[in-house]
Amino acid sequence: MKPRFPQAILAVWLLLLCCTSAFAADTPLGAGDTVKISVFGNPDLSLETQVSDAGDITFPMIGNVGVGGLSVPDAEKKISALLTQGGFLHKAQVNILVTKVQSQMVSVLGQVLHPGRYVISGQRKVTDMLAMAGGVGPDGGDTVTVIGMRNGQSSKHVINLAQIVHSPDMTSDLELRNGDTVYVDRAPKFYIYGEVQHPGGYRLEAEMTVLQALSVGGGLTPRGTERGLRIKRRDASGNLQMIDAKNNTVLQADDIVYVKESLF
Fold it and tell me: Is 29 within the bounds of a domain?
């Protein structure tokens, strides 16, 4: 069985990746964003406004200004140029502060500590957003599914967190885009009952064997035997099958291990 990357360590590692949620300078403005605009030396021109669905704001003297899709520095330059070219100011020094972001959002759902919608500012990858959501919860698995739009088409990416952690190649840590949904799957489980100390359902580790499952279940009771172990497993059609098992048999998700009582 491959060693499992402990969830606690994974959560710490994700938190270390978490960056500040300040609006990055290269992030484009969009509908719903609230901006606070000031012009140096002209307090009467200061205002706080929201970008319209059309990507416009209304600014004193120059009217509607299209800022949707522009970065903050580019929007500052555009307003400055319009004020200067219109003869309203000799040299306008414009500053824009984004006070509320609505246009660049990602949903983080499933087995995370704080599911919800989060702002993506600048480049944000899957591990960054998991960190912002508090990390993977205790029932979370190693698999993350990202659903969104790429090149005008719906897309779905399945990412293995354990591989990202253990591999120097970080290309599978997908860069997120506005509107993406990040879903952390529940960890697969197996079940064990019969003559074991602690019957019940447990997290299924990669390449886990029946012998390891017996250990997780606390071992055999005094009446238990490793002879005649059985696994109840559903086939592709959903039918329940009974499989003779050995100690080195590798388990699958939702397997049910039955430990018999010794006849002697």
Answer: no
Of 157, 186, 215, the one marking the end of a domain is 186
pLDDT tens track for 106-156? 999 999 999 999 988 777 899 999 999 999 999 999 999 999 988 888 999
In a domain, 4, yes or no: no
- In a domain? residue 69: yes
Residue 84, in any domain of the structure: yes
- What is the spatial distance between Cα 224 and Cα 248, in angstroms, rounded to a whole number? 18
Same domain, 95 and 110: no
pLDDT (tens digit, 9 = 90+) per residue, 199-232? 999 999 989 999 999 999 999 999 999 988 999 9
Question: 74 is in which domain, residue-wise?
Answer: 34-100
